[in-house]
Amino acid sequence: MASLGSSSSVSRPPPDILRRMAFPLMYQDIFVMRFVGVNASDINYSAGRYDPSVKTPFDAGFEGVGEVVALGLSASAAFMVGQAVAYMAPGSFAEYTVVPARVAIPVPGLKPEYLTLLVSGTTAYISLKELGGLSEGKKVLVTAAAGGTGQFAVQLAKKAKCHVIGTCSSAEKSAFLKSVGCDRPINYNTEHVGTVLRQEYPQGVDVVYESVGGAMFDLAVDALATRGRLIVIGFVSGYQTPTGLSPVKAGTLPAKLLKKSASVQGFFLNHYLPEFRGAMDHLLKMYAGGELVCEVDTGGLSAEGRFTGLESVFRAVDYMYMRKNTGKIVVELPPSVNSKL
C-alpha cells in the first residue's frame, strides 16, 4: 500500500481508468485501492444465490480497506486524497474501485485488522446484541470459533461475562481460542462435539452462534437449554454443494424447539444496515483501546505463501474451505503487484 501523507505519495490510478470513472466521480464517489477480505459467502454470491438477477460477468468481493486516490465533488467535503478508509460494498476484488462516499468509513491507517471488523466483526456484534440476549453466566457455544467472525463472537461473549465454548479443527486453533478468552475449546478432530456438550453441559447452552450448518447445526439444536437461542449466521458446510445447503434434521426441529421453548433465528447483515455504522465505530474503539483481538490470516502458512495480488483470491477461498485459516483471511493488493488477471 502507498504510504499516507502528501498526495504525491499516493499511488494514482492509470489515466485511462480515471477517464472511465470520471462520470460517477463527478457526483459522490471515492476511488480507492486496498486490502480485501475473503468471506465464505463469496461462493454464494458468485453462484448467484444472493441475487439471481445478476449475470456474468460481474464483480465479486464485499469489503476492502485502502486509501483515497480521487474524489467526487460531494466526497471532497468529508475525505481527502491519501486518507485511509474501510468500506463494505460489492465488487471489492479489484485494484481500483469507485465507492460511494456514504459507505466509506475513515480508519486510522492502512492495517488489515480494520478490515476484519467490516463484515465479520459487525456480524458478531450486531447479531449477539440484537438476538443473543447475553448476560453474565450464560453459556454460549460458538461454532467455527477460530474463523473470521467466530473470533469476535467468542470475545464479545466473554466481554458480556458469559462462559464460552468454541468448536475448531486443530490444536493450534484451540490455543488461539484460549488466548482470546474461550473457556472450553473443542477440537472436533480429537473430541466429539455432541459428547462433550452432553457430558460437560447437561443443562444445555443458552446461546449458539452457528455458521457451519449440517450435522453441526443438529448438534447445536440438541444442545440448547430451556429457552435457548440459536442464531444462524451461515451454513458454510453446504456452500460448495449444488444447492448451497447442508442437510439438517428439519422434520424433528419443531418438536425439539417446542420441548425446550427454544428458538432458531437467522441473521443477515444486510437487514441490519442501520446498525452497521454504530457497530463499526464501537468495534474500532475497542480495538484502539486494546480490548479486541483482530486476528488476520494472510496465508503465510499456505503451501504457496502469502495471499498477494488479485490472482491469489482463488487460493484464499480454497484455503478457507480447507479449514486452514485462523482469524480473518485477507488478501493484500500492494501497488507493486501487477495483476495477472
UniProtKB/TrEMBL annotation:
EC annotation from Swiss-Prot or TrEMBL: 1.3.1.48
InterPro entries referenced in this protein's UniProt entry, alphabetically: ADH-like_C, ADH-like_N, ER, GroES-like_sf, NAD(P)-bd_dom_sf, Quin_OxRdtase/zeta-crystal_CS, Zn-ADH-like_protein
Enumerate the Gene3D superfamilies for this protein.
Medium-chain alcohol dehydrogenases, catalytic domain (3.90.180.10), NAD(P)-binding Rossmann-like Domain (3.40.50.720)
Q: Does the keyword NADP apply?
A: yes
PANTHER family named among the record's database cross-references = PROSTAGLANDIN REDUCTASE 3, SHORT-CHAIN DEHYDROGENASE/REDUCTASE
Tell me the protein family, please: Belongs to the zinc-containing alcohol dehydrogenase family. Quinone oxidoreductase subfamily.
Q: What is this protein called?
A: 15-oxoprostaglandin 13-reductase
Give the organism the record lists: Bos taurus (Bovine)
